[in-house]
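Forum > Structural Biology > Help requests

Title: Can anyone predict the 3D structure of Thiamine-phosphate synthase?

Hi all, first post here. I have the sequence for Thiamine-phosphate synthase but no way to get a structure on my laptop. I'd be grateful if someone could post the structure tokens.
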Amino acid sequence: MGDRYELKKPFPNLPAQAQPAVCRILDANLDRAREGLRIVEEWCRFGLDSSELAGECKQLRQEIAKWHTQDLRAFRDTLGDVGTDLSHPQEEERAGIQQLLQANLCRIEEALRVLEEYGKLYHPEMGTAFKQMRYRIYTLESNLLGYQRQQKLLRSHLYLVTSESENLFAVVEAALQGGLTLVQYRDKDADDDVRVETAQKLRQLCRRYEALFIVNDRVDLALAVDADGVHLGQQDLPIAMARQLLGPHRIIGRSTTNPDEMRRAIAEGADYIGVGPVYETPTKIGKAAAGLEYVRYAAQNASVPWFAIGGIDPTNLNDVLSAGAERIAAVRAIMEAEQPTLVTQYFLSQLSRLQTLRALKAHLPQSHVQSNNLTS
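Reply #1:
Sure, ran it for you. Structure tokens for Thiamine-phosphate synthase below:
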């Protein structure tokens, strides 16, 4: 940018008495945008280990900095700024990383809009430059949320699928307190107004515990409550159509019961798949169990995250894990448990133990593995 943006005759169409105020507005919002970007950049760098997202934040910061000239800084009057004491209770706390990032992304977008409008008074190219940056921030926001969702999905090994319950919210929260990071709201019978209200409350719960929230079947409901994604059955909307409606950054899962359905779901772009039902379950009335053989097939052939599902509980968990599962979905085992937190913790501890054993098995010589019986 350099000398090309040095002003020879500032504010040709603005009264002299208004010029200091506009400079202060530009200075304050340049600071605000750069600070917000630095906060987002730090999470992209250290929290997500994403050089691509961190790099985009850094590039935007540098482009904004080029506009932050000494001419503008000279008008800064912190002591005389009547807004320094203004605050809001929501600014005093952050419920989690998601809220922190969202707040700062909104802060950046607002600042860029101010810079776009007042910049038109300051320099003929400033309005256009900040309009383009604002659209880049919208893209960054979408990519960041999508990346976070995918990373959280990869780290999630236990998936709670809800069933009707008088204590629905208490059970889900108890499971979240036990470390659960992935919840699907499933209710085939409730009226839509009830589903919307329930889904909104569950989404708020999941956000509070920084867990992913997925809606069963209904793309429209997922959009209405700003869910992280949708889970589709074999008879539901095609994945391509769901993707078109949901956009590229939400999660789409698909139920599968055999290798053909698995291959098709992966080819169509499912972010994860359900594998089952492993055992017969009242959740899938009239559907024969796919059995452990399908679990073994998935372990060898699935190229996306997959969750063994269907009748899995603490009594048969080890059989499912021994067949090759690394992720499981549970319904009754948690929803009907007397102590959902403890059951959740048990599932997670067994899944974590399995990961540790398989990691050791992968790194130790085969003879040592066999002699120590480190099998899955």
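The domain at 156-372 is CATH 3.20.20.70 (TIM Barrel). The longest helix spans residues 126-155.
Shout if anything looks off.
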